[in-house]
UniProtKB/TrEMBL annotation:
PANTHER family per record: MECKELIN
GO CC term (a single one): MKS complex
Gene Ontology biological process terms in this record: cilium assembly
Domain of life where this protein originates: Eukaryota
Lineage, top ranks: Eukaryota, Metazoa, Chordata, Craniata, Vertebrata
Transmembrane feature ranges: 490-515, 615-636, 656-680
Designated name of the protein: MKS3 protein
Keyword Protein biosynthesis: no
Classification via InterPro entries: Growth_fac_rcpt_cys_sf (IPR009030), Meckelin (IPR019170)
Pfam families: Meckelin
Alphabetic keyword roster: Membrane, Transmembrane, Transmembrane helix
Length: 739
């Protein structure tokens, strides 16, 4: 769709690319168009659908003489397939080339006539011991569709026969690729691609093995690790990867040197490719961000939606990969470690289920692909496929060896999940794909230690709550244990248990923050998001229980009895009429209530006095998190820097680290505020509580607070001067006398 072409029967007059093209109709006697499209020519044996000359099989098309002069009539020249020549037309039909060697071996010519067997462009003798007849079907389990693949029909039997008879490397690789396109699925009752591969694998033990690897047969690709139960755990945990990784070292210490051998569908080796080129990441991104996926200790996540039309355009031909991890031996020699693959779509037998955490039920494989647009073509290989298969989720898992102090890891594992897409409208269809690199370690020991801490502190919380309940019973003057006592104990225990959860979560967050970010040789790795569920549960419990304690505290504050005792005595007497009697009597002069109102108002104001300033606390924490950059310490990478380059990859957040950084900053700033207010501000500026006590003394008013039936607090505010309701002169004299 990027340029215009002439219709059949028209030749080009001019073309500047794109839509700039001029065409001219060919005359009736020269209705054909040359292969380059610029001239008209007579075609003796008919035209193709594109309006160009066609020739019979084993003939080549000649449109120009040796010196390049265009012929008036095209020639169809027969290739001589007899002995000495052994020539046949090439795929494009432009040249006579030596015919395939199997034709010569079987028939001593370029003709594969009956009873010889012609399949996939190869000729086999009927007397040869060939493998079973292959089934050219591909199963798309997610859609419930089984297709007869045009690619399999053309190449399956020929690849299996050439691999079986001649141990042809390319044919064996092509057969292995067809097995991989069929999701490595093997049925004992079927002779599909994997059935033929397994047949050849079992019956070629005489060929020996490669690099002392029992699963890698000579001339065959390495597809399986074997189907013995429990073999996966041995492969993934029996041996350690022979390299030490560190966070504070050279690039070789912090980079995972993944390298892949790539093959095309026909079995041809293409090249060695470093994964830092982003070959496994289907989502487009900058080279710097793509390369960050293989920095040791950096959790990498990438996901996006890709249109089916773009997939069909970019991945017209599938590429197959064998993944290795490169390392240096003790002698400085470079070695490759084969990376096993866990295909979640594999259907091998009922014994193996490549899902869940039980490694004993896994069947590990080796070869994989990203996009398969080939096996889903039913009839014509040149048309759009009916179904395509896409690697929608790829995860490289790096697991740390337990109790290591030198950064030792187990062999990496590539987990891949495919999505089957029924092609209907490629322009509107899209697929969500993701790529991630995760780092994990066995968290069972940390979980046990957390459970022990929770049990010990929870038991101490029970004892402390019992002591507080006993104190509450004494203060209420009650000696019996009733329902109210049990309820009060549960409320006390809720608050204490909230403190226990808070201490555990803060301790956990600070532990991972310090030991993960500060380590040189890797000894700990952060918990995965799925392993943080208990931590999140603890935080939720702490919040819920503390909210319950807060409500109980609010209720207790609302039920406190407060008495303001005015010690002021009346000054003199006043005449007062007695209602109903009609007489006037003298009575004590009333004392003004405004002093009591004033003290009560001051009491309301100091109820919100704290040892910290809440507004300053929040702003200071936000300043250090967002401006200074402490929030970057919560990223799931090995860097302890407070700054990040906006063009570089930003790792996802760790919930444990986020809580640890935030809680540590909050507690540190609150602790500094408490020290400042207690040591400096209250001593040299003002102390609200002391000022209130002094005000009570000057106002000649005492405060009696009863929080329980038999317990309370008392501020003795009786003035030593006897009177507080007086004028300014007498008040000044009283203060001087007191001084």
């Amino acid at each position: 769709g990027s340029s215009c072409v002439c219709q059949p029967g028209y030749r080009m007059v001019s073309s500047n690319g794109g839509s700039s093209i001029i065409c001219e109709k060919c005359p009736e006697n020269m209705s054909g168009v040359t292969q380059d499209g610029w001239n008209c020519i007579t075609c003796p044996k008919g035209l193709t659908s594109e309006g160009k000359c066609k020739c019979l099989n084993n003939e080549i098309l000649v449109e120009r003489s040796i010196d390049g002069i265009l012929l008036n009539e095209a020639l169809c020249i027969h290739c001589n397939g007899s002995e000495q020549s052994f020539s046949a037309s090439d795929v494009s039909g432009n040249r006579c080339v030596r015919c395939e060697q199997t034709f010569i071996n079987v028939s001593k010519s370029c003709d594969c006539s009956s009873p010889n067997i012609l399949t996939g462009g190869l000729c086999f003798s009927a007397s040869d011991s060939l493998p079973p007849k292959g089934v050219a079907t591909v199963r798309f389990g997610q859609l419930g569709i089984t297709l007869t693949s045009a690619w399999f029909q053309k190449n399956l039997q020929s690849s299996a026969s050439a691999c079986w008879l001649y141990s042809n490397l390319t044919a064996c690789q092509a057969l292995g690729n067809m097995c991989v396109m069929n999701m490595n699925s093997l049925s004992s009752s079927s002779t599909d691609a994997c059935g033929l591969f397994q047949y050849i694998y079992v019956n070629t033990a005489r060929l020996g093995i490669v690099h002392s690897i029992a699963f890698w047969r000579h001339n065959l690709p390495w597809l399986y690790y074997g189907d013995q139960p429990g073999l996966a755990s041995q492969v993934l945990e029996a041996n350690h990867f022979p390299t030490i990784f560190s966070f504070k070292g050279t690039d070789k210490d912090v980079k995972l040197q993944f390298i892949a051998a790539s093959f095309d569908a026909a079995g041809n080796f293409l090249q060695w490719q470093n994964l830092e080129g982003g070959i496994l990441q289907l989502c487009p991104d900058t080279q710097t961000k793509l390369n960050a996926a293989y920095t040791f200790g950096t959790t990498y996540q990438q996901s996006c939606k890709i249109s089916v039309s773009k997939i069909l355009l970019d991945f017209a031909n599938p590429i197959f990969y064998d993944l290795f991890l490169e390392y240096n031996g003790d002698n400085g020699q470079q070695y490759l470690w084969a990376v096993p693959v866990l295909n979640l779509n594999l259907q091998y037998s009922e014994m193996f289920v490549n899902q869940g955490s039980n490694m004993n039920n896994w069947l590990l494989t080796r070869r994989f692909f990203l996009v398969d647009t080939l096996s889903g073509k039913e009839n014509d290989l040149g048309k759009l496929p009916r179904v395509i298969r896409i690697a929608s989720k790829i995860t490289i898992s790096i697991r740390l060896v337990s109790h290591t102090q030198r950064g030792t890891i187990y062999p990496p594992l590539l987990t891949i999940a495919y999505t089957d897409v029924l092609v209907q409208n490629p322009e509107t269809q899209s697929v969500m794909v993701s790529f991630s690199v995760s780092y994990e370690m066995n968290q069972s020991e940390a979980q046990i230690q957390t459970d022990i801490t929770l049990g010990v502190l929870g038991g101490l919380a029970v004892l402390w709550s019992l002591l507080k309940t006993a104190g509450w019973k004494r203060r209420t003057g009650s000696s019996i244990i009733d329902l109210q006592t049990v309820l009060k104990f549960l409320l006390f225990y809720a608050g204490d248990l909230a403190n226990v959860f808070f201490v555990i979560t803060v301790g956990t967050g600070i532990y991972w923050l310090v030991f993960f970010k500060a380590q040189q040789f890797v000894s700990v790795l952060l918990p995965l998001p799925s392993q943080e569920e208990d931590f999140v549960t603890y935080i939720a419990c702490a919040f819920s229980l503390k909210a319950l304690q807060f409500l109980q505290l609010l209720v207790s504050q609302l039920t406190i009895d407060i008495f303001f005792i005015d010690w002021e005595r009346p000054k003199g007497k006043v005449l007062k009429a007695v209602e109903g009697e009609g007489v006037i009597k003298s009575a004590a002069a009333p004392v003004s209530i405004w002093r009591t109102y004033f003290i009560a108002n001051e009491w309301n104001e100091i109820q919100t006095v704290r040892k910290i300033n809440p507004l300053f606390q929040v702003l200071a924490v936000l300043f250090f998190l967002e401006v200074v950059g402490f929030s970057n310490l919560a990223l799931m990478d090995s860097s302890s820097s407070l700054t990040r380059n906006s063009e570089s990859y930003i790792a996802p957040w760790s919930r444990i680290l986020r809580f640890g950084v935030s809680a540590a900053l909050w507690l540190a700033i609150a602790f500094l505020q408490i020290i400042f207010i207690s040591v400096f501000y209250e001593r040299f500026v003002e102390d609200k509580i002391s000022q209130f006590v002094d005000l009570c003394c000057m106002s000649n008013i005492s405060v009696f607070l009863l929080s329980h039936s038999c317990f309370g607090y008392y501020i003795h505010g009786r003035s030593v001067h006897g009177h507080a309701d007086t004028n300014m002169e007498e008040m000044n004299m009283n203060l001087k006398r007191e001084a």
